[in-house]
Every structure is written in C-alpha cells, then in structure tokens.
Amino acid sequence: MNVSAALGAGRYRKPWRIREFLELLGKTQADVARDLGKSPVVVNRTVRGNINNRAVLRHLRDMGCPEKYLSLPEDMQGEKMEKEVA
User: Fold this and answer.
1) 40-48 vs 54-63: helix axis angle to the nearest 10?
2) Measured distance CA(20)–CA(71) in Å, rounded
3) What pLDDT band is residue 54 in, cutting at 50, 70 and 90?
4) What are the distances in angstroms from CA 73 to CA 30, 53, 58, 69?
5) Which of 23, 40, 47, 58 is the 20 to 30 Å CA partner of 67?
6) By percentage, how much of the chain surpasses pLDDT 90?
7) Environment class of residue 43 by beta-carbon count within 10 Å: exposed (0-12), middle (13-18) or buried (19+)?
8) Is the dihedral of CA 10, 15, 20, 26 positive or negative?
9) Contact yes or no for 5/11 (Cβ under 8 A)
C-alpha cells in the first residue's frame, strides 16, 4: 500500500512501477507533463497517488502502463474497453 497517498484509488498506486514503466519507454514524468500541457507537479502528485488527475491517468494508461500499477478510480476502470466497443 502507498502510505503517503490520499484516500481512494490512489492509495494503492505503485509509483515505483509507474516510473519503471516510463523509464522503459525512455520517458520521464516531465515528458508526460509536456505531452498534456500540465504542470510536472500535477503529474508527480498523480503518480504518487496524492491526487487522481484523470487526464494524467488516462495518458499513462493509453501509453500502455498496466492498470494494476495505476489503481484507477472506479469511474475510469474499464473506460478503454467502452471506447473500443463504441
């Protein structure tokens, strides 16, 4: 469990695994922030599980980051499948 995280879905987020995933792609959290036009602080706080910025989580998932690392909020779980079916 991510003890520094907020209550809710982010509490089970795996920041080290997300960082490893980004490293495998040759990306950083700053790259994610630039891709989205967001502050690097927002990306970092989302990766750590302190906040659930849906744009950041969606982008990480769409990059191929496993959902088990992201610990998505309930309203985002299965969202990708719904888009593909529709």
Assistant:
1) 80
2) 16
3) very high
4) 23, 10, 11, 12
5) 40
6) 67
7) buried
8) positive
9) yes
Considering only CA atoms, give the Rg of the chain.
12
Angle 15-34-22 from CA coordinates, rounded to 5°: 35
Cα distance between the two ends of the chain: 34
pLDDT in tens, 9-49: 688 999 999 999 999 999 999 999 999 999 999 999 999 99
Is the model more confident about 59 or about 72? 59
Amino acid (1-letter code) at residue 6: A
